[in-house]
Design a protein that fits this description.
The protein is built from three helices and no strands. The protein is mainly α and about 100 residues long. It is found in: Mitochondrion inner membrane.
Length: about 100
């Protein structure tokens, strides 16, 4: 059998290719890559667009967050915030309500 393989040139081709008996797979081209666009150019373009987007979003966030906003001294007096249908066992106020005492 070895002599048959030797005569067909199979072993010589395997040794010449570096040990793999199978032929290399052909390169697949997808339908969207027609060869007109350079892949390195497209990659560089989108990398620049990404960095520009990061810088713009960061700048916009800094601008918006640095603007002052109005702080209310007291919360608006909505009548539905303090509805008590019955008194709590610990008194008229809720546990976490802070009652400011004026001296």
């Amino acid at each position: 059998m070895a002599t048959t393989l030797m005569r067909s040139g199979f072993i010589r081709n395997v040794l010449r290719r570096g040990g793999s008996g199978a032929s290399p797979a052909p390169k697949r081209n997808f339908s969207s890559s027609s060869g007109h666009h350079d892949d390195a150019y497209e990659t560089a373009k989108w990398e620049k667009i990404t960095y520009l987007g990061i810088v713009s979003c960061t700048g916009l966030a800094v601008y918006i967050l640095s603007k002052g906003h109005h702080h209310y001294d007291e919360p608006p007096a909505y009548p539905y915030l303090h509805i008590r249908n019955k008194e709590f066992p610990w008194g008229p106020d809720g546990l976490f309500e802070i009652k400011e005492e004026h001296h």
